[in-house]
Structure formats: structure tokens, C-alpha cells
Amino acid sequence: MIYQLIKPSLFIIYLFASLLCTSSCKQPEPKKNDIESRVNNLLSEMTLDEKIGQMSQIDPGYMSVDQINKTVRDGNYGSFLNVFGVAKINALQKIAMEESRLKIPLLIGRDVIHGYRTIFPIPLGMAATWNPEVVKKAFRISSAEASSQGIKWTFAPMIDITWDPRWGRIAEGCGEDPYLASAFSKAMVEGIQGEQLTDPTAVAACAKHFVGYGFAEGGRDYNTTYISEPVLRNVVLKPFKAAKEAGVLTFMSGFNDLNGVPTSGNEFTLRQVLRKEWKFDGMVVSDWGSVSEMISHGYCADEKEAALKAITAGVDMEMSSTTYVKHLKTLIAEGKVDQTMIDEAVKNILRVKFKLGLFENPYVDPEAEKQMLSPDFLDHARTVARQSAILLKNDPNTLPLSAGISSVAVIGPLADAPRDQLGTWVFDGKAENSVTPLTAIKEVLGDSKVNFAAGLKYSRDKSKTGFAAAIAAAKKSQAILFFAGEEWILSGEGQSRGEINLPGVQEELIEELAKTGKPLIVVVMAGRPLAIGKVVEKSNALLYAFHGGSMAGPALADLIFGKESPSGKLPVTFVKGSGQIPFYYYHNNTGRPANAKSWTPMDSIPVINSQASLGYKSFHLDYGFTPLFPFGYGLSYTTFKYSNIILSSSEMDSKGSLTVKASVLNDGNVDADEIVQLYIRDRVGSITRPVKELKGFKRIHLKSRETVGVTFELPASALEFFNGKENVIEPGEFDIWVGPNSDEGLHSVFIVK
Ligand code: NOJ
């Protein structure tokens, strides 16, 4: 197979090199006290200009080589982003280390969001694996590749919770749930930074965007956010706290204003929460230009005020805009900024550079890049992509297809779209390294059994000229595989959508194909949850794959032909249409919750000429009160039966914990993974409490007919919440469920005394 032949010999070299490195190349982790004294000594030698230089980061794309070299020599910038190439970065570091006055290494940053050259599924897809371990390894690989290019700082993980699939950057995060996102936040930070920060493959992680960016009103990127303090603390801040606890070295402030104050000038979030409450001692970088954008926000009159507000709030390093370079000196001279504020910021920055061991070894080994795209890396990308796909529908005997099938039609704009399957935020991955579904299916079946007719050239294509060929291909095949979705450009930064249906005329083509009566399998490859209700109706089976990265094709072929059963679960609620947004499973109850009996669908309402009631419950006349698919949902090629929920006690005190057990039976003929989920509900609170909250999950493997016991520990601390005044664990009754998704499960009750 083509993709298994890529550079095997280089990989062997890499394996040997990395094994040798474990003993000789890694430097010992410096002690905290040593770092502090080195930071202080260096600081005491720095001029104010040099300090401000450390606090500034630019993309030198528009500068000549001579200009760049001079800025490094003069210590004008502590960090560059988007500089690449081993030789170039080594040359710049050499100037910094040998020609600048204080010999402070540069910190080279880049967006390495879901892989460097080996591209993994978009982070939302990774979250659908519910498998932090495989995701941690994915980020280890992406750091190994990125660091081999001299990149020592990535602007990941992006851990913005969002309730809005219109928002293009939903692709980059872990979905709607604070517990799930926290588990991935930890895994991603650990993967990026590795076990030892001085390891050549370690890269500094950056928890972004601090904070609330995912709550952009209307899902329109960069928009205003209003978030109450309970939602902020109980939901939005959680994955950031997890990143801090996992040792993340840096945070990035955001573009959004939060409750009226831009997050790059927000003392509450940056000083009160991050520094005072969480005791974060790493570095805060602003987002690109977000300091000067406080002028457009109407929060600062000019750049000088923007610099003042950013430094006062606690932004240590300014990305891209240059208000610090231009104005900090004057602000100090005028007494508006205290020198200690500058010193604190510089210390935070230097601490990161010392922790990464950059002073000892700022250079990158040119041999290290040989590991790029190693078969092992690609194989892991395939595993992650496989685990990230979610089976949303499967009429009996539709999937998996037999590898002995005589013919299949492969149709759809994503069937052979190598760049699109990589997804958004891919600077260094290459389309030529993608293996598409078409290629992978041909590998399995042989070319002659595959009738390919894309039908549409790209996802937004509105021309129906390709329909006839697609229908003809379908008619002469045993089954139809339709690869639907979005191009990569339709999600990501600045790429929000108002309607979240399949773009172009994909639905029309699917309808036409359904008319052939052939088994119709739709695979959706998209950057967000799409409103796919009609497609679900028309298809016999539906796999939701997000943008699965370099190895999306082979991963999907593995599932389609039953090499493995699908096992992903939704990391976000799927809505029926844009009008249902926001819809997240952990909403509070209304005073008038709807149920199946209380909803009157719009089309069944009689024409009434006088005032009348439709039950006065909380629902939409057109959508009803349930989403299309609930959070945590996902089917398998087998069926799982849950039984026997047992709690170690029916009571616990606020310092105690409960053991929760349940049994899961694989009641089918194939071995498969299941993701077992634990939810609770705090029935009565000092503020209204969510109808369900995820508090645990486990991915387990079950052989056919096997029963596995699953055990969760539920500490009382997991029940703590912020009630507007303080963090509390409140006594009272709690519901508890263990089940396959947020809508189903075995139920029990316990009391907190
Ligand atoms: C802007 C984006 O919001 C941020 O996530 C990214 O890291 C920076 N640009 C740098 O590219």
C-alpha cells in the first residue's frame, strides 16, 4: 500500500536516534530555585529596551534577512512566530546566542494545532474519540515533528468551550462539555510538552483563548461575549484550570470582549483568576493584534492606552501589534506603568525559556526532521481518525460492507479531496500526504470494483451537471458510499456560518441517489456538527467523521469494511437546525420543561381563530424539544447492554467519595470498544443546576458476548460548583446515571449529607 511505503528506512534511523537520545541528548530538568536565580540574575543585567524586546513577538514575514538579523542582534524581539526552516532558525539562534548582548535565545512559535506534517483529525474530532491517551500521543508526535523544525512553542491547545456550531472555530476545540474538554486539555498539554521540558522534542504549550472566545454572540467570530460568573467558573474556565494543573507553560488572551472588557486587557481574568487564584507563573501572550484591537473595541483611545491596559491586566508578551515597543518606555517615564510590572512580565517570559532548556541548547538537530511522516506516526493518525468517527445511523445489514462486495459507487465532494480532509489550521501538513477515502477504498477492493463519480466538484458546488454520472455509477453498484461535508475553508478562524446545513446541492444529490434503492451510506467529513436531519432520513447508514487528517481515508475504510467497529461518541450536541442553537445537554431546567406529550409539532396545529394553548412548555414548534443527536451519542456494529448499577453507599459527606459500578455486555457478534459515561444531577441548588453533568467516562474493549464491569470513583469534590458567591458542595439528593450517552443510562440516587 502506498501509504505504508513512506520513508521506512528514515523511520528506523529516527527510532535509533531517539532511543540513544533518552540517555545522552536529554538535559536534566533544572530545579525551580536554580531557574528563579538565573531569571533574577539575567533580569538584573537587562536594560529597559532589552526587557521590552523580550515582551514583543512578531511575524517577520515582511522583513528582509538583514533586518531580521539586526533585530535579533539588537535584542528587539524575544520571540518570532511563523519563521521556519531548520537552517534559518539555527542561524537566528546563533545570532541571538553569539552576537546579542545578553545571549538570550529566541522562542520560536507557530500554530501546530492538530499535527505538523502528519495531520490528525481536527481537535473536535479528537475529542470524539473520548480517548485522552491516543490524543496525548498524537500531540507528542506533532511536537516531535514541529520541534525538528526549530519550533519550541505551539499555540495549542485551543480549549474554548462553545455551544455554537455556527462558530467556525468549534473545529479547533473539544466541544461543549467542561469535563470532557478538561480531560483533553490535560492530555494535549502533556503530549505537547512531553515528560521533560528539556527534551529536544518538548514544545511549550499555550492554553488559548483566555477566555470566553467560544461564546461569540450569534457564533460570529470575534464577537462580543457575555458570560455570567457561574457559567464562566463552572464551564468555561474548567479546561484552562486543567491546563494549568497539567503544567502548561503559557496562556493566550483572546480577541473577544468579556462582559464589556476585552480579554487582552482584562484584569479579572488575567490577574485575579490566573495569577492570584491559580498561581500561574508562566507567560501570557496576547492573541495576534488583540492589544491594538482594544481601540476598535472602543476600550482604548489609542495604542498608548492599549499598551497601558494590556500590561496592567497582565499580558506579558504582545503578539504582532507593537504598542509595547512604541509606548512602554514613555508609560514608565510618566509613572503610569511601574517598573515592577515590566520585571514581572520579563521574568514570566524568561522562566519559560529557562524551563525549556533553550539557554543550554537553542539549536535544532538537522537530523531530527527525518522522522517526519514516519509510518508509525501515520499509523497513529489512522488510529485516532478511526476512533474519532461516530456512527449515527445503521439500518440492519448496511454497515460494515463485506470486503468481498462486487462493486461500490464512491460519490461526493469529499471522496477525493486531499486538502479538505486535513481540516482547518494546517500550515505545514501537505495535501500530497493525505490518503483519501477513494484511494483507500480502491486499496481494499481493487480499482475495478470501484465506480467513482464525484458528482460535485467541491462542497459548495451548485452545478448539477455531475449528477447523471453519479447516478449511473450508483445504479451499476451494489452499494453507494457518499462522502459529504464541508471544504476545510468553511470552518476555522473567521469562517463562521449562519446556516449549518450541507453546503451546495449535496442534499439534492443524496436524494437522487436514495431513489436508486441501493444501500446508501453517507460519510460526513466536516469542520463542525452540521444539521443533517434530512440526510439521516435518506440514508441507510451515516458515519460522522469530521475532518480526519492525513489518514482519514484508510481510517474510514477500516470502519466501512468492518476491520474495526466505529466507537466515537459526540463531543457536542447535534442540533436540527441553526434556530435550535444554543442547545447543550447540561442546560438548566426551565419552570416548564417539555416532554413527548407536551410538544405539538407545528404541522399538526389546527387552524385556530381564537387564543388557545399549545401546552405552554419550553420547545420550538418546528424542532420540538430534543436535539437531532444528544451529546455522548454514537452507535457501534454491536449492541451494548448495561445492567446492575451499584453504588458503594447511598450517602456521602462533602469530603467523601462513592464507588459506582455497572456491567456492560457486548451483545453482538463483533468485538468493539464502548465509551461508558457517568452523569449526575444535583436536584436542588442555591442556584439552578444543570439537568445532567458528565463526571466520568471510560473507553473499554469488549469481545463479542463478553461482560465487563466498569468502576468509577466519584469524589464529592466533583460535585462542587460556583454559586455566584462561592464554591460549594451542597447537601441534598443527586441523580446518577451510567450509560452510553447523555440521554440514556442506568439510574440511581444518592444523598450528600
Ligand atoms: C490568531 C488566532 O486567534 C490564534 O489562535 C493564533 O494562535 C494566532 N492568530 C497566531 O497565528
Average per-residue pLDDT, rounded, comes to: 95
Q: From the alpha-carbon coordinates, what is the Rg to the nearest angstrom?
A: 27 Å
Low-confidence stretches: 1-24
Beta content:
15-25%
H/I helix tally = 21
Classified by CATH, the class of the domain at 640-752 is Mainly Beta
Description:
α3 (48-54) runs antiparallel to α14, α4 (65-73) runs parallel beside α5 and α16 (375-388) packs across α21 (552-560). A six-stranded mixed β-sheet has the order 11-16-15-14-12-13, with helices on both faces. The radius of gyration is 27 Å and the shape is globular. The model is unreliable at 1-24 (pLDDT under 50). It has 753 residues and is an alpha/beta fold. Among the domains are: 53-107, no CATH class; 640-752, Immunoglobulins (Immunoglobulin-like, Sandwich). Helix content is 30%, strand content 18%. The chain is built from 21 helices and 26 strands. 1-deoxynojirimycin binds next to loops.
Note the topology.
Elements: H1 8-24, H2 32-45, H3 48-54, E1 56-58, H4 65-73, E2 79-81, H5 86-98, E3 107-110, H6 123-127, H7 132-147, E4 153-154, H8 178-193, E5 206-210, H9 229-236, H10 238-245, E6 250-253, E7 257-258, E8 261-262, H11 267-277, E9 283-285, H12 293-296, H13 303-313, E10 318-319, H14 323-333, H15 339-355, H16 375-388, E11 390-394, E12 408-411, H17 437-445, E13 450-452, H18 467-475, E14 479-485, H19 506-514, E15 520-525, H20 533-538, E16 541-544, H21 552-560, E17 640-647, E18 651-652, E19 657-666, E20 672-682, E21 693-702, E22 707-715, E23 721-722, E24 727-728, E25 732-741, E26 744-752
Helix pairs in contact: 2-15, 3-14, 4-5, 7-8, 7-16, 8-10, 13-14, 16-21, 17-21
The chain binds 1-deoxynojirimycin.
The site of 1-deoxynojirimycin (NOJ) has 6 residues, from loops.
